[in-house]
Amino acid sequence: MATRKQYPLRIDPDIWDAVQRWANDEMRSSNSQIEWILRDALKRYGRLPKDSSKQTMK
Asked: Which part of the chain is the Arc-like DNA binding domain (predicted)?
């Protein structure tokens, strides 16, 4: 498993609640959901590094 960067996140409470509900709906942790959201956005905008394709999340 790849090493993960730890980063404290300051986030609006309403956004946090929405992320938690979404994560619960998909049976993921909030952390995994945030990573999925970020990865999806990076992929959509062509900013995902080429070597990160091995870390694809469903």
From this structure: 2-48
Question: CA-CA distances (angstroms) from residue 58 to 10, 11, 26, 27?
Answer: 26, 24, 10, 12
Q: How far is it, in rounded angstroms, from Cα 47 to Cα 27?
A: 27
Contact 33, 8 (CB under 8 A): no
pLDDT in tens, 9-27: 999 999 999 999 999 999 9
Residues in the chain: 58
Tracing tokens 């999340």 back to the chain, one arrives at 57
Tokens of 26: 């998909």
